[in-house]
């Protein structure tokens, strides 16, 4: 198996290009005690007389272990650090054995209090002399121990479902902000131990979590889906609202069956219709008898269900509880997305608008003393200390690449303006024939005409050769395809045998501008399937609310014009750097971007989609793509060899040559997956080379494999008094860090390529796991920064290299629009081809079916930016 490349300082020296600048980080020195040994124990709950261990959740387990140590204070002088599952650490040796545990219920009798026991078994000892060395080398078991010690206080103090699912972040409802639709924003704190080149550090960051509001489940659902009448909750499985409710509720924890604090809890995995009429067998002294849920509650609790026609929620064990009896536990993360133009997103942005320096001050003055105050009263006796001064980092500001349209753009803080002065596209497209499909009422005709005329002027100023004459059709949601087909040449011939408008491509519209209503998912889906799959025509959709707001807005029209030029095969601009000056290097290099997107939480009957894009020119501005369906939640791209083979053959079709170098940018892999995912994908890349087998000169391309991570919490801040900052008071775009706080194990660097409009800019983290091209840190960083400037429709540097951005867009676009709709309809009727319910609230996805629905033939627009 191909091995990932571990960092060796002698081989990978830091970069030197750019201007030296010192910045502050949200990293803090972590100082373990060099004289204290640590002991790891396995922990297990035991019920005397029972063979099977009791099922105990993490929150209750933390409480029980805390109570155990109070009850046996003479033994547990140094309190343990517990992971909430099965491991506990102590800063002194504790006798292995079984300890009686008193229940938390203060009214419980002594007999009942002794029914639960805890068994502790010593596993290993971490000697003080080894802890530091192993931790600084990144040894996972030692880092895990330190993480648990770090979080012990928050684990006890900040108990929410969100914290139980991610122990690195804890949230508080103090200062929470209602967002509407049953959602609210809570402030959170992230903290994690990181080994660095200069020793151990703690990464501390502020974050915001979107929470589902607590309270009555029926009230939450009414607010979430804007229902005005309780009868609207009496949904059936055939209702569209049923699927939305099921998706929203999946994974939510609710309480039921008692007063607050004494209730039972369950995690929802499914729904059943008309819960009151649901029949089950009630166990009793005699033979189990069938009974409805509403009769059961009346018989056993004298409880009359007010809404027996409402659904019930089901857990994995099969327990069903009517919605009206359930209460949502506060502090649960909402895993969906806020609407782009909604009030909730506006309020979230308002919360995030604080200046970078305010964020750092909040961390150092409030968060650290509150959560990381290891002092002489530390009950764990760990002897750990945290330096409350942020680590200063030696960084460099890279020179921005030159952005070339037909003339050079003026770049300020990573941004440029297409209209001032007016810039013409580096390679404008041609659109002698085009069309407009309007799916809104005639009352908006004035705005549509204004917008279309403004857009045409922007396209012309961009250099696109476009005729003012266009084919225009009006339609509704009931005649989508006929409306679109009337834009094709000779639509009256459609009924003739062998009719295929693609046989005369010169007569086809080069693109179709589509004006959509505000809510138009079905129309947009049909438009994209028609344009991408059926005909091979680029389509540009614009919602009427945006059209009305921006009918004569030059900036909006220019942004749409940039998308259209790219979709037509034009090149808006290129980025020039010293590396690109080496034409041999760039002409013989293929840049790859790869990503996997997964179905949203609560969606069980759709696959994940993997996508790979590959550059087709020496400026790295045109790309082809390949996409596949794969098993949900699977991060490894199992069909990478076939996908890459397609891209290599596309490259050869365009350039009549094979690449000598492949720079592979991979999104979405966590450090824990490096060995498993990256190594396997490198093997599949080799297999793609073997399938081609006839590379010029007999040698296959050399590979550089880089993982790019966006979801991390490292941030950089200008030092106080530094005036060389952006308008948002962030560090300037092009900030690169490859010293001080980077990994002692891997060859990595942080690059902040963009400026944030609001709040603190997030750098991307690059980890080089394989490098046959032997690229220097300077070359890799310069290339990464340049690729952040070639995103086709942007007028600013973006936060990640464009090919990764494109791969992410392809995943989303293909997953939404490219599966054969007829096959999906047939599968829905046959109930089983696409997915099968396993009876446990989950579905088994038939990946073969979904790839058949995707089809072996890619869209005719494969080498154009159809996904923008």
Automatic annotation (TrEMBL):
Cleaved signal peptide residues: none
Biased composition (Basic and acidic residues): 487-504
Ranges for region Disordered: 484-504
InterPro entries from the UniProt entry: ArgoL1, Argonaute_N, PAZ_dom_sf, Piwi, Piwi_ago-like, RNaseH-like_sf, RNaseH_sf
GO MF assignments: nucleic acid binding
CDD domains: Piwi_ago-like
Entries under Gene3D superfamilies matching the protein: 3.40.50.2300, paz domain, Ribonuclease H-like superfamily/Ribonuclease H
SMART domains in the cross-refs: DUF1785, Piwi
The Piwi domain, residue ranges: 511-819
Protein name, as recorded: Piwi domain-containing protein
Organism field: Ceriporiopsis subvermispora (strain B) (White-rot fungus)
């Amino acid at each position: 198996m191909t091995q990932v490349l571990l960092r060796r300082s002698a081989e990978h020296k830091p970069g030197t290009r750019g201007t030296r600048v010192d910045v502050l980080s949200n990293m803090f020195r972590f100082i373990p005690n060099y004289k204290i040994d640590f002991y790891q124990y396995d922990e297990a709950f035991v019920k005397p007389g029972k063979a099977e261990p009791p099922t105990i959740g993490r929150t209750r387990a933390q409480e029980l272990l805390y109570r155990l140590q109070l009850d046996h204070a003479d033994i547990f002088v140094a309190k343990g650090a517990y992971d909430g599952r099965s491991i506990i650490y102590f800063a002194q040796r504790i006798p292995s054995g079984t300890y009686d545990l008193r229940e938390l219920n203060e009214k419980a009798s002594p007999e009942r209090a002794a029914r639960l026991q805890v068994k502790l078994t010593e596993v290993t000892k971490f000697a003080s002399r080894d802890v530091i060395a192993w931790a600084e080398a990144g040894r996972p078991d030692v880092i895990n121990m330190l993480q648990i010690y770090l979080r012990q206080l928050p684990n006890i103090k900040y108990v929410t479902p969100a914290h139980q699912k991610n122990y690195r972040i804890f949230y508080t409802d103090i200062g929470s902000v209602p967002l509407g639709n049953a959602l609210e924003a809570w402030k959170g704190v992230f903290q994690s131990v990181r080994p660095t080149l200069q020793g151990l550090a703690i990464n501390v960051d502020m974050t915001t979590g979107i929470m589902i509001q607590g309270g009555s489940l029926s009230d939450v659902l009414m607010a979430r889906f804007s229902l005005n009448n309780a009868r609207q909750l009496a949904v059936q499985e055939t209702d569209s609202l049923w699927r939305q409710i099921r998706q929203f509720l999946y994974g939510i924890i609710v309480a039921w069956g008692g007063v607050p604090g004494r209730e039972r809890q369950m995690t929802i995995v499914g729904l059943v219709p008309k819960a009151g009429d649901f029949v089950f067998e009630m166990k009793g002294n005699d033979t189990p008898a069938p009974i409805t849920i509403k009769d059961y509650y009346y018989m056993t609790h004298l409880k009359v269900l007010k809404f027996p026609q409402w659904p019930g929620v089901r857990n994995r064990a099969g327990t069903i509880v009517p919605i009206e009896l359930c209460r949502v536990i506060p502090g649960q993360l909402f895993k969906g997305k806020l609407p782009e133009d909604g009030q909730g997103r506006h309020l979230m942005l308002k919360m995030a608008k604080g200046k970078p320096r305010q964020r750092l001050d909040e961390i150092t003055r409030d968060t650290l003393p509150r959560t990381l105050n290891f002092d002489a009263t530390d009950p764990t006796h760990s002897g750990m200390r945290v330096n409350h001064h942020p680590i200063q980092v030696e960084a460099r500001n890279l020179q921005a690449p030159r952005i070339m349209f037909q003339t050079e753009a003026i770049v300020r803080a990573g941004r440029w303006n297409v209209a001032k002065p007016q810039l013409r596209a580096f390679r404008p497209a041609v659109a002698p024939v085009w069309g407009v499909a309007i799916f809104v009422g005639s009352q908006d005709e004035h705005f549509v005409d204004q917008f279309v005329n403004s857009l045409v002027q922007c396209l012309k100023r961009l250099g696109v050769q476009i005729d003012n004459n266009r084919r225009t059709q009006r339609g509704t949601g009931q005649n989508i395809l006929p409306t679109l087909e009337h834009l094709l040449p000779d639509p009256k011939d459609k009924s003739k045998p062998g009719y295929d408008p693609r046989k005369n491509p010169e007569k086809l519209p080069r693109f179709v501008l589509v004006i959509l209503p505000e809510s138009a998912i079905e129309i947009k889906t049909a438009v994209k399937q028609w344009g991408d799959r059926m005909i091979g025509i680029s389509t540009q959709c614009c919602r009427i609310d945006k059209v009305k707001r921006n009918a004569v807005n030059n900036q909006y029209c220019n942004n749409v014009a940039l998308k259209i030029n790219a979709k037509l095969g034009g090149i808006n601009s290129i980025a020039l750097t010293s590396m690109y000056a080496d034409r041999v290097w760039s002409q013989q290099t293929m840049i790859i971007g790869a990503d996997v997107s997964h179905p949203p939480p609560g969606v069980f009957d759709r696959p994940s989609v993997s996508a790979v894009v590959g550059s087709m020119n020496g400026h790295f501005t045109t790309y082809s793509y390949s996409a596949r369906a794969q098993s949900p939640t699977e991060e490894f791209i199992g069909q990478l060899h076939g996908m890459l083979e397609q891209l290599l053959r596309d490259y050869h079709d365009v350039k009549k040559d094979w690449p000598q170098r492949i720079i592979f940018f991979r999104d979405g892999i966590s450090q824990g997956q490096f060995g498993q995912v990256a190594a396997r994908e490198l093997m599949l890349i080799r297999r793609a080379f073997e399938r081609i087998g006839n590379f010029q000169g007999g040698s296959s391309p050399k590979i550089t494999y880089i993982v790019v991570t966006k979801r991390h919490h490292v941030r950089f801040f200008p030092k106080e008094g530094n005036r060389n900052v952006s308008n948002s008071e962030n560090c300037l775009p092009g900030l690169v860090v490859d010293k001080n706080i980077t990994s002692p194990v891997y060859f990595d660097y942080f690059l902040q390529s963009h400026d944030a409009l609001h709040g603190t800019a997030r750098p991307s983290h690059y980890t080089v796991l394989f490098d046959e091209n032997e690229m220097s840190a300077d070359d890799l960083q310069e290339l990464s920064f340049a690729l952040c400037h070639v995103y086709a429709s942007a007028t600013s540097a973006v936060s990640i290299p464009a090919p990764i951005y494109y791969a992410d867009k392809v995943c989303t676009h293909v997953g939404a629009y490219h599966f054969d709709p007829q096959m999906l309809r047939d599968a829905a009727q046959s109930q089983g081809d696409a997915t099968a319910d396993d009876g446990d609230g989950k579905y088994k996805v038939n990946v073969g079916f979904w790839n058949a629905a995707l089809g072996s033939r890619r869209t005719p627009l494969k080498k154009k930016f159809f996904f923008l």
